[in-house]
Specification:
This protein is an alpha+beta fold. The chain contains 11 helices and 21 strands. It starts with 6 loop residues before the first helix and ends with a strand.
């Protein structure tokens, strides 16, 4: 019997073949959850009347939450009985999606062509999983390619009814298939993890949060030119402070980076994420109460949260779990894939790498990369070199740095019982690694 598929899924799996990764449509970027939650947590636990007013304002901007049908009502909510706010107990799995909908995204995306491309719920063109370890000593952000062909479970739909399970669906159709809960169920099925928290962001939210932190400094190894983004993106080699719509274009760019594929775009986003994490960690964000408030307010105003996250105290407790992790223990990686043998435009999980990664996540092991950054990223030039002229040499595998904390428990040694060294086929970087984006 043929698998039952919803209309959105059929629309993505059929039609005229297009070379994988060269689709004209672009998706937004799901903001770095760790930075957001740290900022929100600091705002909510700061002393004084101003902080109390800010916390109330942030709480009042939280939108009604989306119920994840597979999560028990009230599960994961913060314990508000304690007088002192503290980090959440145990680990956290939080899914972030970026929707490509043009609905309500301002005049820049209001043309008939834009709305015809994606409107309403839209597609989850960015899907990321934030995994915080049980001991809060390591954080992983796993990006799942939008063109990933996988099996999906039955998905209860927000308006009633159920989208039937299927053995072959493109990942970025799952938001339209059954809402945020369907994306969560799909990633749970793929990884074996239980995911009680989820959030969704759109174009306007990405621009607002880059504005809130005053922009992010990114390194460009070779010129990036992409006329398909809105606005068009043109960056020469060197260091660039990007903010607002330019930051959104940078994160959406595919034609301008790497090999023009979605896989290249993921590594370009990781360059941005690591740079943002370093800015937050350096004190440029955490030391400025106004910036903290602006970032937290931009997040709560522009994100749709699962009902397990709508209590700001829960957000703060997750943020506090991230507060002392350290950049070297924050890893960004791409879920391992290979070309789909049935469709050159798509990818499927790379079985061996996926098995190792899934087991490490379920086993709550700290992840260490053994390979290089992704397709559109290269290691930055050494500090002694002219910072305005990044090293454009092809990336090479480098040893993953280890923590320098005086506390020996702050980071497991590679190969220890609490740590998993991933195969070189899994690409990514830590937040501590300085990388540059590579133009196409």
């Amino acid at each position: 019997m043929a698998d039952a598929e919803s209309a959105p899924a059929r629309a993505h799996s059929g039609g005229v073949p297009i070379r994988h990764g060269r689709l004209a449509r672009h998706g937004p970027f799901a903001a770095v959850a760790s930075s957001l939650l740290i900022a929100l947590g600091v705002v909510l636990v700061s002393g004084g009347t101003l902080a109390a007013v800010a916390a109330w304002d942030i709480a009042s901007s939280v939108k009604p939450g989306v119920h994840l049908q597979h999560v028990a009502q009230g599960a994961g909510q913060a314990d508000t009985s304690a007088s002192d706010l503290s980090a959440i107990v145990g680990g956290v799995n939080l899914l972030l999606t970026g929707t490509d909908t043009r609905t309500g995204q301002g005049a820049a995306f209001a043309s008939s062509a834009d709305l015809a491309a994606s409107s309403g719920t839209g597609n989850n063109d960015v899907t990321m999983l934030l995994h915080i370890s049980q001991n809060h000593q390591s954080v992983s952000v796993i990006s799942f390619p939008r063109d990933l062909m996988i099996a999906v479970p039955a998905c209860p739909q927000p308006g009633g009814g159920t989208a039937a399970a299927s053995s072959r669906v493109i990942l970025n159709s799952t938001l339209a298939r059954g809402g945020l809960a369907c994306v969560v169920l799909t990633i749970e099925k793929l990884t074996g993890l239980h995911i009680p928290f989820a959030a969704q962001i759109s174009f306007e939210g990405v621009a607002a949060m880059s504005d809130a932190v005053g922009g992010v400094t990114v390194c460009v190894a070779s010129p990036i030119d992409d006329v398909y983004t809105n606005p068009p993106l043109h960056l020469a080699a060197g260091q660039h402070d990007i903010v607002g719509d330019e930051a959104l274009s940078f994160l959406r760019s595919r034609h301008g980076v790497g090999d023009g594929s979605d896989l290249g775009r993921i590594s370009n986003q990781q360059v941005f994420m690591a740079a943002l994490a370093r800015k937050v960690e350096s004190g440029g964000v955490l030391a400025n109460p106004i910036t903290l408030f602006s970032l937290a307010k931009a997040a709560t105003t522009n994100m749709v949260l699962s009902d397990t996250l709508t209590n700001p105290t829960t957000l703060a407790q997750i943020g506090l779990a991230l507060k002392d992790t350290g950049l070297v223990n924050m890893t960004f990686l791409q879920y391992p894939t290979v070309a789909d043998p049935r469709d050159a435009n798509r990818v499927v999980p790379q079985a061996a790498g996926a098995e190792i990664l899934n087991a490490a996540l379920v086993g709550d092991k700290a992840l260490h990369l053994s390979g290089a950054p992704g397709r559109a990223a290269v290691e930055a030039a050494p500090a002694s070199a002219d910072p305005a002229v990044p090293d454009t040499a092809a990336p090479t595998a480098t040893a993953t740095p280890t923590a320098t904390s005086a506390d020996p428990s702050a980071s497991a040694s590679p190969g220890s019982a609490g740590e998993a060294v991933l195969p070189a086929t899994i690409t990514g970087q830590t937040a501590a690694q300085n990388t540059c984006s590579k133009g196409s």
